[in-house]
Amino acid sequence: MYSVSVPVPPVVRELIREFRPLLTGFDRVRGQRTATLVVKRLDADDRREYLRAAREAKRALRGAPSFDARISDVGVFEEPTGGTAPVVYLAVESPGLWEVHRQLVAELGRVPGLEGDDYTPHVTLARDGPPDAVERVRDYDFDPVTWTVDELEFYDAEHKERIETVPLPA
Fold first, then answer.
1. Is the confidence at residue 32, as pLDDT, over 80?
2. Most buried of 47, 105, 118, 140 (most Cβ within 10 A)?
3. Model confidence, pTM
């Protein structure tokens, strides 16, 4: 899967590291190196399709400003669109992120169940854990983190690598 994503900054990576001891009991735990914040998935199955989709996404991003983002809460997907449940995540608040997402969806279309009105900006911590582990994560008190998003990245999830970046404002 290819996507347009927000690079996860050091302040969020540190927060993920802070949560790590609480994730005991989950079958799959995301590390700080594999953390992502997807803005929009791209309709591309291979490199050639990616190049077309990336051109379209860059065109759709023209004029997109930099924006602030904040994490102050933990969320849970009890019934995620795909994969095992539950999924615990860091909830991202950002009107600017929503605006960029809407702009990309308007130009590129939406993935049903994941994008448009169904979009939930988040950074996944772990999935498939028992209820007591979910509650332990949900109840953890932490200091909110805020940062300015001044670039987006085109990301290849299969290879877990950044392909290229787009500075904001675009």
1. no
2. 105
3. 0.95
